[in-house]
Write a structure and sequence with these properties.
Blueprint lengths: L1 H67 L9 H24 L3 H17 L7 H23 L2
Helix pairs in contact: 1-2, 1-3, 1-4, 2-3, 3-4
Amino acid sequence: MIATLVAVLGTLAGTIVAGFMQHVTTTRTTRAATAEQRRRALADAIPALLAALVRHREQQYLKIVARRDGLTDTPDTPDTRQARYAARSQVTSAMDTLHMTTTDPVLLTLAQEAVNAAMALGDAPESELDAAGLRARVAHTALRTAGAEHVYA
């Protein structure tokens, strides 16, 4: 009788331990899958923001070239204005996506600095244009580097 009771208790204990181990394994697997999903989302969000920043700076440089060519008296055409606004909107959307992807304050600060530098480029006076362009490129590189470190950490 005692042997039967010990066998039953042993079986119950084994079942409990097996269930606990399965729970631990499932939890670890779920956490790993979630971490991988977040890494992939970040791996998509950062390049999207970087690409949007490049497109925005391209539009600003086109505006600057027109200004340098003495075309400042020529009003914006609807097409050129639309292209600049679309580029700016893409930056905003990409930044929104990044905010939905991460809460890392360092990464978000670097992203905001890159956005601010790109936005300031179009309004920089000619005498400060080289410095503004350099700030935009340095901020872009800092975001790219930090983004890669976060994605591949």
